Prior knowledge:
Low-confidence stretches: none
Shape: globular
Strand content: 25-35%
CATH architecture: 2-Layer Sandwich
Structural class: alpha+beta
Strand order of the largest sheet: 2-3-1-4
Number of strands: 4
Largest sheet: 4 strands, antiparallel
Amino acid sequence: MKAFWIAIYKDIKNPENIKKYGEKATPAIKKYNGTILARGGKVETIEGQPSPRTVLIEFPTMEDAIKCYNSAEYQEAMKIGKGEFNRHIQIVEGV
């Protein structure tokens, strides 16, 4: 069953570092068969607090999504982002 990695950013200190993080994170996501469905772009907040960025990634399974997050490759990308942004991430199984 598919799983979706949802990252909702609360704040971003330096947009240039988001680009560097993305350049490092994208190959790890692809390695674990992830497909980026939304990354930034136009947003309209209907309820709750606005977010400067939301990312939605589809994986074939929950296991793939979790393996990606815990992978050495993705954790290297996380080092670039450390202290540069504050976000909430959930991995949600599809229906």
